[in-house]
Fold PepSY domain-containing protein.
Amino acid sequence: MNAKRLLIGIGIGVSIGLLLRPSIEQKKLTPEKALKLVKKTVSQTHTITGSWIHMIPEQVTRQNTTYEVYRGGISTKEANDTKQYEFLVDRTTGTLLDLIAS
């Protein structure tokens, strides 16, 4: 009887663990979603005319913290000129880490 209860308990524990696993694991943004967030942020101050993003994430270190990021670029229209910006966006949070005029 004790062995049967033990096996039932283990089975229930494993089942619950498998069901909760996706919500426990930290989800990563897709490159498309990350680009959409960057464009939403940048469009508050600039008129965007084009954009691109690398599909493969890379690691960068800022202030002794390592981030997994996507690298990309935005083209904007300012006055009668087109200006290019490069950006780094955190793959986990969608935070814009760098936006540098190139």
